[in-house]
Predict the 3D structure of the following.
Amino acid sequence: GVQTCALPIWQIGMAIARRTGTGMKIVIGDKIPENAEKVSKTMNEAGFDTIGMEMDLCSRESIRSLIEEA
């Protein structure tokens, strides 16, 4: 049969950042700031340079703020 694996979306994003973000500053955005900080802390402990911040994909202003931080 077919096997499936359900992961929270932030785990997929973190996996992509881990694969492609070596040597870069990674800005992690989430609508819930605590989620962004949790992922940022995990990645920083693994040797990455990250910052977590609140970001709402439905808000252009919020997206612009994340880009400015990067």
Observations:
- The mean pLDDT is 84.
